[in-house]
């Protein structure tokens, strides 16, 4: 699992890649939290366009970043979820906490 982080105009974009399970979620959390805590972006966008598999650890990853961003008044955007992951995210109630968008263009 890899993550590329990009900060632009107060938005931190985390481009996630590969599979998100218990082991990889911990590594992602540490890397994202380190940068997000330092920069305190108004929006933390988690881009799932390159994620092939995600279990409940991915839901925990999203919810934990929501809690973190809430500490400084930020928000979380979940972008580009593959269709097979949308049901998992919806059932977990993520749509009630975060903005969920299909493409980066919808986000603007």
TrEMBL record:
Coiled coil: none annotated. InterPro entries: Anti-sigma_ant, STAS_dom, STAS_dom_sf. GO terms for molecular function: anti-sigma factor antagonist activity. Residues 1-108 form the STAS domain. It comes from the Bacteria. Pfam families: STAS. Belongs to the anti-sigma-factor antagonist family. This is Anti-sigma factor antagonist. It comes from Candidatus Caccousia stercoris.
């Amino acid at each position: 699992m890899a993550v590329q982080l990009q900060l632009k105009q107060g938005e931190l974009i985390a481009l996630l890649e590969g599979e998100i399970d218990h082991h990889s979620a911990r590594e992602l959390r540490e890397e994202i939290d380190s940068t997000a805590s330092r920069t305190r972006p108004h929006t933390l966008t988690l881009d799932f366009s390159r994620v092939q598999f995600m279990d409940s650890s991915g839901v925990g990853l999203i919810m934990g970043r929501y809690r973190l961003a809430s500490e400084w008044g930020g928000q979380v955007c979940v972008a580009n979820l593959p269709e097979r992951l949308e049901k998992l995210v919806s059932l977990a109630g993520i749509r009630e906490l975060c903005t969920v968008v299909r493409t980066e263009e919808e986000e603007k």
